[in-house]
């Protein structure tokens, strides 16, 4: 893939956060989108709240769908393309699952046929409403839906990897049926890559959907273990991108850095711009990067209670629309990349990962794990490492397709 990567942001409304769907005001949305477009970004990722849009298993609210279409149209008027996350799901430490899945109506969102069909109907409805919009990129099934399937969630819906795969296939097919010319995908948080025996697997992450979505957060132990000014912090997103490519069947599958942010205090506020520039520059050095989408557009209003402290200051824009230092840095970098883009050369040296898909000790890939540290040691020594699975380390055709000319073994 030689196209210049896209630059965008996850849209967090400045007034009311995602609760704005309960009191939707298109003028507020337009003002926010003006500020985002003013940064020179080209897309947003938006989040309908699932209980607001589908409060009953057989009721999808037409007015809410119309409001989503109005938001997408307003974005298009400002030159912004839109990806829509369907099943919200989980956002900034809060769960938003409809009442028909909880307490007295407790059912497994991944495994029970009538529930899965209701989810498919919901995604199909959203995708169909937007299918003719030229600025509609496509659907993401939901935001980090794998967090509902296991630890550390306090009340997970237990499934096996085969059930997880069937669920992904069914819901991606629903999106494709409703909007066949669009680019649909799913997103995981990093348990899929790092957590032993998690039911959603690296192969599913890297083989289902049009691209692999990476959500790179250094509060996952990276910053705590290695420090905010470390190789591991600056290269965490690039590491996840390269780790994902090891599991892909397509040597040049697009990878979307769909969430990345500078969480305080793990990244001190005064270092946020520097962190953004280093993280994105290292991600851009990975072949086949489709897009960088920062989390998030606007800071959470401090009038809203009970968010973890980290969530209040992740925006490129302050809650009143002022551009923050990280926002200015990302805007400058996006402009520079569009002007001077040249695809990165292949990563010629690959570190061998000996790990079965499931079950497997994925924790060797996590911060502090043997493979993670082997990779970061290679980076610190000046190597641009790729990652290759042990089963493909002698596959000349696979290595050649990826441009790999040397493989190195690691204790991981």
Structural class: alpha/beta
Secondary-structure arrangement, i.e. CATH architecture of the largest domain: Alpha-Beta Barrel
CATH C-level class of the largest domain is Alpha Beta
Q: Do you know the CATH topology of the largest domain?
A: TIM Barrel
Q: What is the strand tally? A: 12
Helix content: 25-40%
- Strand residue content: 5-15%
Major sheet description: 7 strands, parallel
**Count of distinct structural domains:** 2
CATH superfamily annotation of the largest domain: Glycosidases
What is the spatial order of strands in the main beta sheet?
A: 6-3-2-1-9-8-7
Protein name: Glycosyl hydrolase
Organism: Actinospica acidithermotolerans
Keywords: Hydrolase
InterPro entries: GH (IPR017853)
Structure notes:
This is Glycosyl hydrolase. InterPro entries: GH. It comes from Actinospica acidithermotolerans. The structure is a single chain. This protein is an alpha/beta fold and 412 residues long. It has two domains: 6-340, TIM Barrel (Alpha-Beta Barrel); 349-408, no CATH class. It is 36% helix and 14% strand. It has helices at 26-38, 50-53, 62-77, 113-130, 161-178, 191-194, 202-207, 222-226, 231-234, 236-247, 272-284, 325-340, 370-380, 396-402, and strands spanning 6-10, 43-46, 81-87, 90-91, 94-95, 136-142, 212-216, 255-260, 289-294, 349-353, 386-389, 406-408. The strands form three sheets. It has a seven-stranded parallel beta sheet. A three-stranded parallel beta sheet has the order 11-10-12. Strands 4-5 form a two-stranded antiparallel sheet. Helix 4 runs parallel beside helix 5 (161-178). The longest helix has 18 residues, at 113-130. It is globular, with a radius of gyration of 20 Å. The protein starts with 5 loop residues before the first strand and ends with a strand.
